[in-house]
């Protein structure tokens, strides 16, 4: 399988016979091709790496995500608590019951 010509070569060759919309679509296809090639390279790299190394990386990511989630919950709780302290002193708790 041969590699397709670079997007710039296709652009200069077809720009005279294409409408601007067609050229824009062709440019998007060229970007899509580039992104798919990058994805293919990344997947190939991941497939070659040892499973233990991938799992260690995922565990680290899970810990960081958990930390961010905990900090977000604490921030939301702090905001709600401040709103209750500053705006809820009018007896708002008695109205609910």
Structure description:
This protein has 97 residues and is mainly alpha-helical. It is 81% helix and 0% strand. The chain has helices at residues 7-14, 20-48, 51-87, 92-96. The longest helix has 37 residues, at 51-87. The model has no long low-confidence stretch (mean pLDDT 82).
Describe how the helices and strands are arranged.
Layout: H1 7-14, H2 20-48, H3 51-87, H4 92-96
Structural category is mainly alpha
The largest β sheet comes out as: none
pLDDT averaged over residues: 82
Query: In angstroms, what separates the terminal alpha carbons?
Result: 73 Å
How much of the sequence lies in strands comes to under 5%
Low-pLDDT regions: none
Overall strand count: 0
How many helical stretches? 4
Spatial extent as radius of gyration: 27 Å
The ordered string of helix (H) and strand (E) elements is: HHHH
Anisotropy-based shape: flat
- Percent of residues in helical segments? over 70%
